[in-house]
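Dear colleagues,

As part of the handover before I leave the project, I'm documenting each prediction I ran so the next person doesn't have to rerun anything. This entry is a single chain, and its sequence is reproduced below.
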Amino acid sequence: MVLRLVELDIKGSPDESMERFLQAAVIEPLPHTVVLPELFTTGYVLDRIPELAVAPDTLASIPPAAVASDKGIWIVAGTLPVATPWGVVNMMTVFDPRGRLAYTTEKVHLFRQMGEDEAFVPGSSGGVFRYGPVTAGGLVCYDLRFPELSRRLALSGAEILFVPAQWPIGRRELFRSLLRARSAEAQVFTVGCNLGGEHLGVSFGGGGGVAHPGGKMVRGSSVEDGVTDFRIDLEDVAAMRSRINCLEDRRPEEYGILLERMGHIGER
């Protein structure tokens, strides 16, 4: 299976950015799955987020849906600001090869240090979803720092986690280290797609990647600047767990207060 990370910069209007990212998504040869970054059409223009937010009932027909259907590929369409009755959430969408909206999840943890909480409200996890023959889940950017959330997804059956993100270049190695940690903790694939270039005076520069269930980063192959393909075998999850199974070796009775809060998130 080939996963493609599209880590371009934001240029032009939201529609123009959407088009650029989707054009890169379908460069031949086509991958199995394309992953886009967090807020790849708008970035963190916090004062404009309310006006740029889309309505929930339009998500099933946004451009990635048509591209996924036309090309027969999965698209993890980064995140968009989505207007809900309780406020704007930072929402990740996933489209299956028929172009159907297969999954949504919201950014649970807001990065208050940059004022994200002034434009967004904290979201809820969408749990897990069927991704071909396996189960997958999603986290958004800052959520990666909270192992409680990724652990709940793993306990719900996730074998691969998708993480659209905007991590500044100065914290790139931390981003990649956390991808590796989340993978090693539960023997899962963790796929982090970061924004490229610069935005609002901050350098991002891409640099995401795919962490293997063994805890190492998978080597990628450059398609063009900002577009990288990674070949993985989902059977590696079972293979790793046959040797070391951290989930089976857990001792929740020793985890104190965490035990009270570690109920499973099911599909919804």
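The chain has one domain: 2-260. The two ends are 26 Å apart (CA to CA).

All the best with the project,
I.
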